[in-house]
Protein 1
Amino acid sequence: MKELNETIIEGKSVAELLKPRIKCIEPFLGMKREGWDVGVISVVEGGDKDDNLFVLSLPTKYPLNFKRLEWWEDRKVEDLPDYVKLETVPIPVVVKAKEYINGQRIISDNGGIYPMTIATPATEQEYKEYERKPGK
């Protein structure tokens, strides 16, 4: 079985798509000095470094100025994955994404329309494994 960081779209992997991202949504005093501007997105590369913990805390400390983005928010359509896992009840489903609508919904290859809020990036391998399951 392939690793979580298997490339699922050109230049993007599941691990990359799931990295926390913080966006500056409103101006604040000293923002230029701190390297921020409205619309700037900071990708948190991971680890327990003080810088990462500080950036991750910004939306909680300053909710009017910063927002923690969901994995799909503020991405170009070409950066979204070809396959997604839908956290449906009672059994998760893996589908091939045929189209994305306004960055909020997925049209799957089976014609289903699903909200992004229940989706996480998946690999082609996960999709093939799901398709082989009996009685899916």
Protein 2
Amino acid sequence: MKPTDSPPTDSPPNGGQLTQAGAAASDDQHLKAQIARLFFADGNDLLWRAHHTAKAEFQHRSWIGKIYVDYVMAAECALKAVIIRYSPDTESPQDAYSKARRHSHDIGKLLKEAESRLGPGYSFVSAECRAFMTSLPYSVSARYDLELLSSHWNTQKGYDSKLNDSIRDPAFMAQLHTQTFALVEAVKTASEIAPNRSLPVVASRLKNIQDAFRNLKL
């Protein structure tokens, strides 16, 4: 997906197919759908913010580092939503949430887990997107300028050029923009292909779902 001047939508990137559950679904399925919706909403907020703040006139190291983190976190949220929403029916919401959290900020592990949830041998990103997003030079610690500067001037390894070759390189940041959008779009396409669990919520069971949400250990 090529970057455009249009911001990401303020709804889940797959049009909402991963965000609903219905009459035939269990309370656990409803709760997992709700958690997934929240992850998608976070991802879209981060993608929207990165897309627009990247255009700011001032582009110092600390500022670009935070834009970098927003893109990475947007991809992370999209993948975690898939992991939770398409977890086995036998997996509780707490276990599904914990499984997504267990992979922390590791895009490679999250991508592998998300694809496994959609089916054996399933792959929904291009080789280029996979190679780029699974070999990012920094974790989300790049949001701290101290971390970036420390990496840049490593006293044991000497001058580290990866900062200049990544976050401070406009071509790298443009590629990060492109591949993050591509990953989110791939999640959207994959969710449309996967078995549809999109059904209306049942109001009579809402209290059970709300109670379960309050009891979820975050």
Protein 3
Amino acid sequence: MKNPDLITLSDHDLKILLYVWKWKVVTTSVLYERFGQEFECGPEAIFKKLKRLQKYLHVKVVPVTKPRGLAWGINDKGFTTIREFLPELKAAGFKSENPNHDLNALAAQTSIQNKVSDIIENYELYTEQELRRVHDGCHPSWVPKNFPHIPDGYWFFKSENEFCIVALETELSKKSTERYTETLIAYNHQDDINSVLWIVEEETLANFILKSSNYRNQDSKNKHHFVLLENLLKDGVDAECFAGTKAGHKLSEFLFPKKFHPYFRITSASLPSPNTHPALDARAYQTKSTIYSNPRKAPDRD
């Protein structure tokens, strides 16, 4: 007799579960963008796969308010299933402590992917989940070692013997002056990190960070640059920093190995607007979604 609690997982199911673990929380739309072509299916089929995984307690629905709607997170059973496919872990875990932050961090970190992947072949992205959970000895060789702070992720760009490591900080809420001071000082003493990109929703938060940390534009060791989340999602590598040592400069002018700068200058790209970025499209799926047509039906979560 068939056990109703057992599920036979396909390769597609495993890839979805591993991706959800990597980012902690995802939307149906971002899974469709990532796997739709590979799986040769539409968003409705991705949604059905998620519903099946939910039925067997491998994933769960995660209500979010920024954007308003529903996202997906992994469950205990799902984590147990994929554990053998993960590198050695120093800390077992998978849950999102702040789904709204993690969803916006996903959008921000993947916002340049379409443009960069066409130009820079050696491009890697390493997430906060991987930094926090994976054993240090299993990190890619380029990941900074013995760094006391865990960012929201890293971008890594390489061209022959030239490479850049960019730490990403998605700040949606204000923290203490002391915390920002410690973080900026730690970065300034970490020579392995070329730049730190702070992604904020409002300029006032950037000003608070800079002021509280006794920031000095003339400090040659200061590697901190600030960009608005809205502009990053809309313009990708063409987004301009509004504060820091590179204020007024596009990301493409200083984040990447110099070999690639001419390519960014002659190619223009505009990624989806903040309202349509897949990571921030919190509809159940892209058609026939009552949540999308009537956002008031999405559950509140304070």
